[in-house]
UniProtKB/TrEMBL annotation:
This is Glycerol-3-phosphate dehydrogenase. Its EC number is 1.1.5.3. Keywords: FAD, Flavoprotein, Oxidoreductase. Residues 11-335 form the FAD dependent oxidoreductase domain. Belongs to the FAD-dependent glycerol-3-phosphate dehydrogenase family. Residues 393-491 form the Alpha-glycerophosphate oxidase C-terminal domain. It comes from the Bacteria. One of its GO terms (molecular function) is glycerol-3-phosphate dehydrogenase (quinone) activity. It catalyses: a quinone + sn-glycerol 3-phosphate = dihydroxyacetone phosphate + a quinol. Its cofactor is FAD. InterPro entries: DAO_C, DAO_C_sf, FAD-dep_OxRdtase, FAD/NAD-bd_sf, G3P_DH_FAD-dep. The lineage of its organism: Bacteria, Pseudomonadati, Pseudomonadota, Betaproteobacteria, Burkholderiales. It holds the Pfam family DAO.
Amino acid sequence: MSTATTSETYDLLIIGGGINGAGVARDAAGRGLKVALCEQNDFAGATSSASTKLIHGGLRYLEYYEFRLVAEALAEREHLLNIAPHIAWPLRFVMPHVKGLRPRWMIRLGLWMYDHIGGRITLPHSAGIKLDQMNAPSGLRMDITRGFAYSDAWVDDARLVILNLLSAQEHGADIFARTRLVDARRSNGLWQCEVENTVTGTREQLTARAVVNTAGPWVAKIDQLLNPARQGKVHAAVKLVRGSHIVVPRLFAGEHAYILQNDDKRIVFMIPYEDKFTLIGTTDVPQENMDNGATISTDEEAYLLRAVNQYLAKPISDADIVWRYAGVRPLFDDESDNPSAVTRDYTLMLHDADNVPCVSVYGGKITTYRRLAESVLEKLAPWTRTRRGSWSKDEALPGGKFKRADRAQELDYLKKKYAGLDAHFLTRLFGRHGRIAHVILKEAQTPDELGRDFGGGLVQREVDYLITNEWAYQPDDILWRRTKCGLHMSQEQRAEFAAWFNERCPRRS
């Protein structure tokens, strides 16, 4: 097997292309550092595309006294709504109150803290509500009449990763898709790293002054590869906790979400999803390893169904489930016996043997990825020379260079410019790409000009863009991560698209 060697020395080599790796790459490249990022599979292919799709402080974390985490997450919620107004937007949450669970005074106190702990908050504050006076039927049991409402936000998690990578690339980062770290060693004051393209088998030598390990569920494995002398003696351990979700046809009207208290003191969300569906999640189940990936179990399905059926006027069953997915949270192991109580905060482990540093990222949550990236660069400050300081909260992500309040106006302009195209199609395209939708559509004014229609709102013009610009390599990259069109397609349509895609883009052996 041949191995190529690059003559360039990177300031930073990042291992792992989930949200944390993408965030570090963007921040570092924007500060003028020479950055490379390697991801062994598809970007956002594991945890970062399998979240509950929320930007939130984590209301329930207050019960575990995670005040710093909640405050930071709420502040980050404001920043993300501003830099990604096309893929993230405010969402009102309703918490029905039922007797026998958390008392009213406790909920009121928690919501008051939630309204104030994050500093300047632009979203509406919490309030007590009567469910029978909501603008649309609640979908809940008739005897559940009161509750509380508060604000958080929704985000397309996989697109958040891609847009951070595109931004990193715009700032000069080299992004290596489907490339895994094979070996790494410190030599002559630098990292000498061997990486392998998992498609072609080609190997390459990359040299870097520092390495950042954002491998998610594989963080401990990479940590040991980077620091073999410390194998078995790492100062931090990862606890893998699976969070599973189910998607069913829309259960209630309105644009609000529900946060439901369960009798085990956990909470379960019901969130409007992709117009026609409701997303239900999540679970907290220990995962032994990642050898076979993450798959929802029948017990988890039953748990989620039981949790929502305690509230719904019309109970649902497993026959109603149209999609299932599971992700594994790589949490910092704080030795808690309760998976729900394990901290969602992040821990950064710095190893600087021979004055050649690496930082391994344990834990974290999608809401705080940007601040995590800043913390990584603060850790590495003694070894890096940056052109500027913190900047990433002020520059919009690609496609989102408009004010949050102007989102409706931006969408209206798109619909007027492309009046010959379906308005619903344009709305969904804008929700994935923002202003980049104009780049994708170009001068098209009729459906025929968009190329083949694969169903579910997916057309050839967008597919071509995703292949050329967003590292899409397999059908699922497009159906379930770059877009969620697979959810709107029949099994036959998905199969036809896969056949077309594989014929057009044959996989190299």
